[in-house]
Amino acid sequence: MFEKILICEDFESYSISVKKVLEEFKATNIEQVYYCDDTFFKIQVAEKQKEPYTLLIVDLSFNDGEKKQELKGGEDLIKKIREENINIKIIVFSIENRASKINFLFEKYNIDAFVTKGREDVTDLKEALTKVMNDGIYIPKSVKLSQNNLIDIDEYSLIILKLLSKGMTTIEISNQLKKDKIEPNSESSVKKRLMALRDFMDVTNTKQLISICKDMGII
After folding, report:
1. 180, burial (CB in 10 Å: exposed 0-12, middle 13-18, buried 19+)
2. Is residue 6 within 8 Å of residue 39, measured between CB atoms?
3. Per CATH, which fold does 5-133 belong to?
4. Does 1.10.10 match the CATH number of domain 155-216?
5. CATH 1.10.10 residue ranges in the chain?
6. DSSP assignment, residue 138?
7. What CA–CA distance (Å, rounded) separates 61 from 47?
8. 36-60 pLDDT, tens per residue?
9. Which of 13, 62, 134, 206 has the most CB atoms at less than 10 Å from its CB?
10. Which among 154, 10, 153 has a CA at the least distance from the CA of 72?
11. Is the model's pTM score more than 0.85?
């Protein structure tokens, strides 16, 4: 079992649930922290004292509290840990369920597991802990991911995304495609492709689509 564990979660009810699961795994050295800045500070101190934490269980979203925070959420914390090359296993425990976002966390920050809060989250967390203890990874059953399908986007889609990121409307993109002799180039074709891309990325609007594509380095 992991020797030292940190739970970074701003809702006490979730922290208690996670702690109970860890205790079933015979974990005894468990600390609960409510802020990402405090969590990173603890990890830094432990590293300097040669008594490092071996597992971090962290949420992604945090409500504004009494203390002003530099690290606004779990993703900022994970990014900071990876930038400092701190060797610690990371399980994300979050209400987030977008396949594109979850895939991004695995690919960008090399997290070890992602558990979606919900109806069967205790069972999923137990499975995640078992896999991570054995140097494996855990991906939610509800999310269809593979290391091969992160960016399954053809050149035509990439062109449309790049034009969209420049602020072009669908009719303007259509006109540009016609100018560049790229087919299909009708406005309806552009709209259909954007709809397919939104479904693929599991987002509801083009603003989210562009944001995720930029985060992933697609455009």
Report:
1. exposed
2. yes
3. Rossmann fold (3.40.50)
4. yes
5. 155-216
6. B
7. 25
8. 999 999 999 999 999 999 999 999 9
9. 62
10. 10
11. no
